[in-house]
Amino acid sequence: MRRKLLMILVALCLPVCGFTGQLAPVGDVPIPEQNPQTPAKVELGKKLFFDRRLSGDGTMSCSTCHDPRQGYSDGLEISLSYPTTRNWRNSPTLIGVAFQKYLFHDGRASTLEEQALFPMMSAFEMNQNLDFLEEKLRSVPEYVTEFTSVFGDDDVTRARIAMAIAAFERTLVSRDAPLDRFLNGDTNALSPEALKGYKLFTGKGKCADCHYGVKLADDQFHVLHVPENPEHLKDPRIAATRRFVAKVYHFEGYRTLSEDPGRYLITKDQKDWKAFRTPTLRDIASTAPYMHNGIYATLDEVIEFFNAGGGKGNTALTPLQLTPAEKGQLRVFLEEGLTGAKATFTYPKIP
Fold it and tell me: Which helix (H) or strand (E) holds 330?
């Protein structure tokens, strides 16, 4: 009864707060019919996730850029790269990735199974030949046994590798955050300062216009004109990566490209120029630095960016006029209210 009353009150405040969706506590993880979840498949995917065999030179694994100790990101402005190359975007967290409709900052993948293979094949990430990877794993008796147990035969394929990794990634869920307990009826779950921040989040701060639902994201892409990092613009390795990706996606001006076009490369729709996916805010205190290019090292900087109305020339945001005290309260909510309960993590033994 208490929870029902609270949800009614939250619903009633929607028109006042002005946001388009309702915040929701974490529930069941969606599992696709074509890739049912089993403990054995999850364990196989976990081993593959941490196995450096998946990279061309054996130095990187999925966990290199998605480290459990860093909120399943890597704590870097832009993610680690294959030797002699550099990436050009920040590693997004994998926390709650099972709830995401679009994957990567530009939304080029819509399933975890599809997403898993992109970094392996990327020339500036893991730089692996998938035909060769299949043979590498087929040469490991322990893997052959596990693939047989999970899939019914010993055929180690890239599709099954992706399915196993996706199954593991669907277990990466942040649960029992103070916000979840609050939405489930515990009116004391948020500290007084965090509660003030929650009211700002759903009201004056307009955060919940785009950050709502279980994942605290709207499955949309927005042009906020996040500043380019001047140091990145000077790095010829990043310039090469930027041009290479643009060329792969058939952008005619790839040789003179000097900024990240965002989702435009995927859709070729001018409205998507420099548009990026709304990120989840779950466990955001653990996933610095922020934005698609890691330009902001702290939440205070992010809050200031939005308080100022976003980047120069954008039309998606307007100044919020938050006071210094309100900005502090909002940060407390983001840090305290959205951080899930710590769970014990056991690293797998790689065969």
Answer: helix 324-332
Q: Position 208: which residue type?
A: A
Cβ atoms within 10 Å, residue 233: 12
Tokens representing residue 326 in the block: 């309100």
CA–CA gap between residue 287 and residue 297 (Å, rounded): 10
The 10s digit of each residue's pLDDT in 109-154 is 999 999 999 999 999 999 999 999 999 999 999 999 999 999 999 9
Q: Using CB atoms within 10 A of its CB, is residue 132 exposed (0-12), middle (13-18) or buried (19+)? A: exposed
Domain spans, the chain? 2-26+174-225+274-337, 39-169
Contact yes or no for 126/82 (Cβ under 8 A)? yes
The residues that bridge with 213 in the sheet, in sequence order, are 23
Q: CATH assignment of 2-26+174-225+274-337?
A: 1.10.760.10
pLDDT single digits (tens) 175-230: 999 999 999 999 999 999 999 999 999 999 999 999 999 999 999 999 999 999 99
Rounded to whole angstroms, the Cα distance separating 271 from 264 reads: 8
Residue among 272, 233, 232 nearest 251 (CA): 272
CATH code at 39-169? 1.10.760.10
- Compute the average pLDDT of residues 284-306: 97
DSSP3 helix / strand / coil % (the chain, rounded to 5): 45, 5, 50
Host H or E run for residue 134: helix 130-138
Nearest Cα to 255, choosing from 265, 245, 266?
245
CB-based contact 156:138 (threshold 8 Å): yes
Q: What are the phi and psi torsion angles at 48 (to 5°)?
A: -65, -40
pLDDT at site 191: 98
